Task: inverse folding
């Protein structure tokens, strides 16, 4: 066992505070990682505050982790001390399962999330990246390309793959018209990734306040959704719309912006069900689908793609002592575009 | 102009009654068809009774038409007098359109439906198949394979293509598990077609009352949706579910029956929007999509497929004088499985 320093939430209405716990004794297949940076994902806040009613306290959030390999087990072949690595949203999956599917492991019941999941055979839930180190099986450790800064690369591990996976699944590339709905931590990654894939990218944001940023990141067009004219102008315009907002919006309005046989993909999730008109999808054989992160294989592919294209997240570094104010600003969408905790602040 | 005998509705609350009108003078590219049979589609009832608030009276419904070619225009090359032919849901599309897409013409704004649509340049709406003959441009006339009876083939023109198109689009074949939700005029065609494509077919029907029929038509499994155990047993079971029912059901229950990355396709449409849970589609990257008939090219492909596999609809022949009682029985789902009007009864 190795003692870890961390910040944890101990209850839904308690601020995160210093917490010490034991990581498991590293095994032959484990990689021990000194965590340098950890992005703040909205899921961290939902979990810290038990907004999904599934939190086991104390909880150490954080699943956008980058760091340096401290040591490796005897059977680890792909990593060595000093390597620049990352850990994303899960640290194990149903490897022993007869129907194991490497491309869909993240949709399988055996998934062990990086925090707040009790793994089979374990006594304690997993603890995430708001800590000084982590012990992860080799198969769930990612390589960070040398040209990507570890701080700005951290959000790729969740926000990046969350956008990359649907863009690939729905075959975005030169000639496709993609709309990214919402210009936040997820949305801005979608703009950069879709543009790098060669698509013609349109941002649909509540206002035009981030228009200059959007165009700089690779968008060709930028529309405000608070202007009804936007919905007139863009009827039937897109091959794919990726919705990154979790506010309750009228999906039917956006379904009308799809070309025939095109798809509206949710990666942000409003809590309450949204009424969908059957006619909005029957006419034009349109689709409404969801998507959630990606496999380890695809996450590495995404990181390599980002290395090739020099893509990282736009970030604001913060210290772990300022978590609560960062959380409040995330909730107000008052960050351009992702907070990353400098873990040196843990002391 | 040629005088046509027909049955028409003259108002939302009036029974259909004899009606005489002029078909257009056949042009060089037109085929004149003596109508022998016409299926009764639920859309006919919705339109006759103005339930979609878009009916122009008098309306002559009917878009599941089979008959014999009476004569052809000078430029018609694919048909001759005496040929066995069909006409489906539309009789023109945006042929002159720069973005014409032969595979998606039925989703384009230039679509002229077989009845109740005013074509560009025309004074009157189109009149459908509840009549003795029809004049149709060659490009919108289908060939009926010789081995298919004209009466039982009529429903292929709408019900058949409505199921065939999504089965093909979502790549159903050997090794795929397909569920057909609803065992009526549409659903029973889905069972026959999916089974002929080599899929493993499951029927999900309210009760088991039509189980013997379903198994005979090619289903391997048959479940009652009024039994909660069905939803336990079939979690994550299907590559594709096609929903043929227009009653308001909880789509989220059925989304849970999909495998990861599988799709629930609506071809029946409840009038009111249905609340959809984002989590039901984000988890597993599941999709909810619609589908509507098919192109002329795909409709001919479907008819040829039915010829090869000897597939027709299960029908009950009726006379045009009994339309109202047939309509009432369709509404009560009291027909196995499609009414077809014997047009000889028009006299």
Result:
């Amino acid at each position: 066992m190795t003692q870890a320093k961390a910040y944890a939430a101990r209850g839904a209405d308690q601020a995160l505070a210093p917490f010490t716990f034991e990581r498991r004794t590293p095994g032959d297949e484990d990689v021990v990682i000194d965590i340098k940076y950890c992005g703040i994902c909205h899921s961290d806040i939902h979990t810290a505050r038990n907004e999904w009613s599934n939190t086991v306290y104390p909880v150490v959030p954080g699943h956008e982790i980058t760091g340096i390999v401290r040591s490796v087990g005897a059977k680890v072949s792909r990593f060595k001390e000093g390597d620049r690595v990352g850990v994303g949203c899960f640290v194990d999956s149903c490897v022993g399962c007869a129907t194991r599917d490497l491309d869909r492991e993240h949709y399988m019941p055996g998934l062990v999330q990086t925090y707040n999941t009790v793994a089979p055979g374990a006594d304690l839930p997993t603890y995430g990246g708001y800590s000084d180190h982590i012990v992860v099986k080799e198969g769930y450790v990612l390589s960070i390309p040398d040209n990507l800064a570890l701080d700005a690369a951290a959000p790729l591990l969740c926000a990046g793959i969350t956008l990359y996976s649907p863009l690939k699944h729905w075959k975005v590339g030169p000639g496709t018209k993609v709309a990214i709905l919402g210009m936040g931590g997820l949305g801005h990654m979608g703009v950069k990734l879709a543009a790098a894939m060669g698509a013609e990218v349109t941002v649909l944001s509540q206002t035009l306040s981030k228009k200059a940023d959007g165009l700089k990141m690779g968008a060709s067009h930028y529309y405000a959704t608070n202007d009804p004219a936007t919905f007139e102008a863009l009827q039937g315009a897109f091959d794919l719309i990726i919705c990154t907002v979790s506010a309750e919006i009228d999906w039917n309005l956006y379904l009308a912006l799809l070309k025939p046989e095109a798809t509206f993909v949710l990666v942000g999730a409003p809590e309450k069900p949204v009424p969908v008109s059957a006619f909005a999808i029957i006419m034009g054989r349109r689709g409404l689908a969801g998507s959630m992160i990606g496999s380890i294989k695809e996450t590495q592919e995404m990181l390599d793609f980002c290395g090739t294209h020099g893509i990282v997240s736009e970030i604001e570094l913060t210290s772990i002592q300022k978590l609560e104010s960062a959380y409040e600003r995330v909730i107000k969408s008052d960050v351009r575009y992702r907070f990353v905790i400098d873990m040196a602040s843990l002391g």
The domain at 159-290 of chain A is CATH 3.40.50.720 (Rossmann fold).
